[in-house]
Design the sequence.
């Protein structure tokens, strides 16, 4: 069953910014690309590198470790299929950012937010 978990506030994620959130033991990276919100696991599916500092080209994020590219809209590598990111629905509800999460609840639904990773 999907749960909605607050992961920050709209003010923390203006267009062009990204931020980290910690949700039930997972590190999530949130992006605001031209007003569209995206949320992904902060772990590259190739070898687990953090993606939080990856370079963005439009909606395509380049892993800083070995350079694989992932489209944040689909989680897939552009054009080739293959490895894919774990993505999550995220939206603004009033002044809050809310992420839908399907994982089992290990603890009461709590999220802590980290500093903006600009
Ligand atoms: S760990 Fe991301 S491309 Fe290798």
Sequence:
């Amino acid at each position: 069953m999907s749960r909605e978990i607050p992961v920050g506030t709209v003010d923390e994620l203006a267009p062009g910014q990204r931020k980290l959130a910690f949700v039930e033991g997972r590190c999530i990276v949130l992006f605001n690309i031209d007003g569209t919100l995206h949320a992904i696991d902060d772990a590259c599916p190739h070898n687990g590198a953090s993606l939080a500092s990856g370079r963005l080209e439009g909606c395509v994020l380049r892993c800083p470790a070995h350079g694989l590219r992932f489209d944040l809209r689909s989680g897939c590598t552009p054009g080739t299929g293959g490895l894919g990111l774990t993505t999550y629905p995220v939206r603004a509800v009033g002044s809050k950012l809310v992420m839908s999460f399907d994982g089992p609840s290990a603890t009461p639904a709590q999220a802590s937010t980290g500093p903006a990773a600009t």
Remarks:
- Residues 3-107 form a domain with the Rieske Iron-sulfur Protein fold (CATH 2.102.10.10).
- The longest strand covers residues 26-33.
